[in-house]
Amino acid sequence: MAAPANMSWTFILSGIPELGDHQQWFAPLLCVLYATAFFGNCTILFLIRMERGLHQPMFMLLAMLAMTDVGVSLTTLPTMLSIFCFNYNEIYSELCLTQMYFLHTFAAMESGVLVAMAVDRLIAICDPLRYASILTSSATGWMGLVIVIRGVCVVFPIPFLTRRFPFCKSRVLSHSYCLHQDVIRLACADTTINSVYGLLAVLMTKGVDSMFILISYGLILQAVLKMKANDARLKAFSTCVAHMCAVLLFYIPLIGLSVLHRVGTHVSHLLAIIMADVYLLLPPVINPVIYSVNTKQIRQKMVQLFRKRRVEVQANGIAVIKV
């Protein structure tokens, strides 16, 4: 019997069923990944906030990327830890819809930030003399505001469209968190409106964004190939390496997960679970590492920060010994 649409119900989240009762073995690795994501992104946010030399469009966009990564991590943290650390896999419908909303919203925001970063690199390489006049602090702030508003507004109808469904089939979800396409799969009603709007939402965000990123890098490649000096070419490419890695980390798992949802039963369930976890866990963990290694200013400020902390710890230790 289908539950009324306005009743509260529970879904069953899936961890890694193939591990059986040994799922908790995955908990230490999961805790390390989340700790790394929080520490890395919060360190970048702290450096950009405290260092005036980093108050530039490129680094402000990097701060936005770090904030979206923190948002994604905070959204998935409760259910992931409850499953793998405490073996608790139930989630109430309202919490599931809330998690779904924030998860898709932060994903849309991250996609928008990656577009803004691609535009930043395009202007820096193709029109460097006008870079400071085009990408002002005000322009960067407006870009960030548009990215947030777009993500919030595009995803806003989805939880309300999903809430009206009755669920009479199995309520076992495929992942450790709530995704729109995964939830409506279990509905005992016509989900055409949700499917069409979900597709439109993806096209309006990630579809449009990926097209602009491809166009931006096409123009960047064209500009770089026109450079006569090899050193200039290498320098131009090196400024794009970190961003290209961030784009690949975001879009490759996303495309893979979308393909797996389309082909359905023709692929391994374990592969779909791994791809979904990689899609949400890998970018927040790897992005800070990539930008710390490839961005000279961030790397230098990070080294200075840890040296300063080390000196303070040593000074405090000497003071304690003297007392």
From TrEMBL:
The chain crosses the membrane at residues 25-47, 59-81, 101-119, 131-158, 207-225, 237-258, 270-293. It is a multi-pass membrane protein. The gene is or51g2.L. GO terms for cellular component: plasma membrane. It is found in: Membrane. Keywords: G-protein coupled receptor, Membrane, Olfaction, Receptor, Sensory transduction, Transducer, Transmembrane, Transmembrane helix. SUPFAM superfamilies: Family A G protein-coupled receptor-like. It comes from the Eukaryota. Its main location: membrane. One of its GO terms (molecular function) is olfactory receptor activity. GO terms for biological process: cellular response to lipid. This is Olfactory receptor 51G2. InterPro entries: GPCR_Rhodpsn, GPCR_Rhodpsn_7TM, Olfact_rcpt, OR51/52/56-like. Residues 40-291 form the G-protein coupled receptors family 1 profile domain.
